[in-house]
Every structure is written in structure tokens, then in C-alpha cells.
Amino acid sequence: MKSRQVEIDKGHTMLNKLINACLLEGGSYNMFSNNVYFVKMHDLIRDMAIQIAGPKFIVEARKGLQDFPDEEKWGKDLVKVSLMDNYISKVPYISQRCPKLSTLLLQNNIFLRSIPGSFFVHFHELNVLDLSETSIVSLPNSVSDLENLTALRLMWCKNLKHVPSLAKLTALRRLDLTGSGIEEIPHGLEMLVNLRFLCLDDARYLKKFPPGILPKMSQLQYLRFDWFSKTLKVNGEEVVSLKKLEHFEGQFYGVNDFNVYVRSLEEGGPSHYALFVGEVKTGDLFGKWMVEGNTSLEVVELQHLNNLQVLFKEERVASIPVVQPGTFSRLKIFTLSECPNIKKLFTSALLLNLGNLEEISVACCEQLEEIVAAASDGVEEKAKGIEEGVDISIFPRLRKLLLWFLPELKTICSSNNVIAGDYLEEISIKKCQKLKKLPLSMRLINGQLSPLPSLRYIETEEEWWELLEWDHHDMKNVLKPFCRPSDGLNLARNGLWSIFV
């Protein structure tokens, strides 16, 4: 196919045909307030497919295996092997020749540390190799001779330090080193003239990307670097030379490189790009740019910011906090994850400007204590003229609230604030043990609490739910029918495993 989008469209067409024929089932789950769609095989269909494949397939995923399948199963007719999501710690040498083996999936064997150096010598027809989320330290040298390999996936191999020469792998189209521990670019990368996809995101130990390599990979359609690396930067003219690029994320050496690339976009370029210049500083991440630009922002997503301590700094006049008019007034979606040093999110003075906020997702912020910081010394009441004992609804358009893995979170908002419930559809709260209240605004009709009109579900742990404190004795009973238990295993399967390993 000529482009990634055309490939994706073709893939969806194929999947839809299988779904319509009831050979696949469609489904979805919610992650960070976004619906993620997937397809799966019904267990009976899967068993039938494996039976039909016979000795051509070894499919033993999620079987709790600690040992590799016996060598007698590795025959000359073997085509595909899937051993993903097991507990295999050691791979033995296989003496059998497997001239037809095209796919080997070993991802999510987190105890796997080593593979014999000559393991791949009998697998010359291998097309797809996935060792993602294993603990391997070194990739076997025999990988260098897999001349038919088209996809090599090494995502979140954090212990991986050595990758042998890739010079002979000229058929390779996809190389994913996301989150790996490599310190140097693999030798021979410039020879991968058919490479379409290269991802080096979160490769935090990678020292540099040598000049002169990118222009030789003229078929690249997807290129992503670690935004926050101090050394992994690219030359603007080299990126401009990649005429087929559709998705680019990375950091330039300086403003000149940035300007060279931005000027090239006038003649066309990627449909998706994220460009960085300079380094993220300690303290207030946004600085002057946020003060001047935050009146038009609709989506804010912040991830992996170890130094972020304050989201927004407000001024004070006569002891009353003052926020610039329009600040965050158009904000609809706010996502914060893996920012370990932030303790308070929104200020109380900012609440009046957050009337359009529809989604809040916060996860894996170890020190976060408050979503809306409580005002001190009655400042909030003075600013708003709030009468004592009167509850004020906040976030009037909120539809989704997700709070995951926040061990220090104590409150969502101050005692006289409650979350408006007219539009609220989804609540997901997991691993927030210190949070004791769920402050929701619920209407009384004829003296009885009425269910929230748009609520679809509340996803949380049953133990936490039973220990909650309620302002009204009927709230728990009214909301109970909407509760469903959370599944910790699904977090790993749904893409968050890389965060918590």
C-alpha cells in the first residue's frame, strides 16, 4: 500500500468481513476516558482454528508456561508460534530446522532474560519476531542473519543493552525500540532502506542519533523519538528529506532546525506531528506560553514529567487569588499521568473557568493529594461570596472522571463543592485507598434522591466502595446498581502494563 492510512483502512475492511461472518467478535474498553476498540476470537472458534492448523501452529498463549515447548514439536512444517504472556525464563537451543517458520511471538514473558546466541540459525524464513516486555539483556547475534525479517518488536525491554548488526535485514519494515534500554543506535541501521516504521520513544538511555542515517531511510512513514531526551535530537533538513513521512514526533537541535522543518510543511508533510525544541524545565512546565495561550486550549495531555510540581501559578491581590480571564475556559479534556511530584491539580480560583471541562483522567501520580486544592483561610468564600453550609456544583459539563493509582489522593474537592451530575456518564476509580468521599451532586425529588440522569457505570474495587463515607444516607443505595468491579488484569492487557512494570 502507498500509505499507512490506506493500509489501516484495508485492515479494517478485512476485520469487518471477519466480524460480519462471526469469525471475530468486536468489543471496547475505556482507558483514560477514551473508548478503545478491539476484536477477539470466540473460544470455540479459536479452538477450531488451532485444530485445523494442526502441527503448523504452536499456540500456547497465557497458559502459565514456565518451560519452552518440547523440541519434538518444532518440525519442518511449523509456520507460526505464539508463546506470549507466560512465565518462560529460559529458551533452549533448538536443533530442529524450521524452514517455514514465519512468526515467533514471545512478548510478555517478563522473566525471560537470555536466548542462546545461535537460536535463530534454523529460522531463516522468519518474518515477525516479537520479544517485547521481556527481560532480555542482549539480542542473539543470530538475529543478524534473519534476512527475511519484516518486523522486529522490542518494546519495553528495559534491560536490553545490546542489539547486533542489522545491516543484512534489508527487508525490515518495522523496528520498535520503545522503552528499551539501548545506549547506542544499532549498527547497520542506515542499511534498512525499506524501513517504514521506526520508534525510539522513551528510549531514555540512548545517547544520540548519528547524522546521515535518516536520509538513507527514504521509505519511512512513521518516525518517533523520545521528546524528553537531552541528547536524542534530529537535524531539520534530514527530516525534511523524508518525503513519505506521515507521522513524526521528535526534538530538534535548535530553533534553526525547527524553522527549517516548519517552513517545509507549507509544501505538505505529515498528517500528524509533535515538535519539540529545548528542554523541559523544573517547576512550572508551561511558563509564559501557558499564560498567553491557555485561553484557546481544548485538550491538555501531560505524561512522564518528573519535575512538574505546579500546573498553574495564580497571582494574589489582597489575599484573594486572581486568575487571568479566560484561562482554560475552552478546556474540554484534561489528562495527567506519571507526574510523581505534583500534589495539587486545579486551584479553587480556577474553578469558575472550567465550565466546559468534559473529561478528567489522572493516573500514576504518587504524591497527588487533591484534584481541586482547598482554599486557605476562607479565601474561596470571600472571592465567591459563598454562604456557609451551601454546596456549590463544579465541573457542570463533566462526562467522564478517571482516577487510577493515586495512593495519596485524599480529596477530589473541598467540603462545600460537589461534582455536577447532570452530564456524568462514567466514573472509574482504582487504587485510591485514601480517598474517602465521592462528592456528587444528586437531586431530591419528592424527598427521594434521584439517580444521575446520564450515568452508565461506576467502576471501582468493591472493598473501597464499602468503606466510603456519604453525605446522604441514601446515596450509596441509589448508586450501587451502577457499580461494576474493576479488573486489575485488564489494566495490563489494555496497554498500561508498560507503566507499572
Automatic annotation (TrEMBL):
Show where the Disease resistance protein At4g27190-like leucine-rich repeats domain sits. Answer: 323-438
Pfam families the UniProt entry points to: LRR_8 (PF13855), LRR_RPS2 (PF23247)
Superkingdom field: Eukaryota
Name the InterPro entries on file: At4g27190-like_LRR, Leu-rich_rpt, LRR_dom_sf, Plant_NBS-LRR
**Keyword Transferase attached:** no
Asked whether the keyword rRNA processing is assigned, the reply is no
Record-linked Gene3D superfamilies: Ribonuclease Inhibitor
SUPFAM superfamilies, from UniProt?
L domain-like
Keywords, alphabetical = Plant defense
How is this protein named in the record?
Disease resistance protein
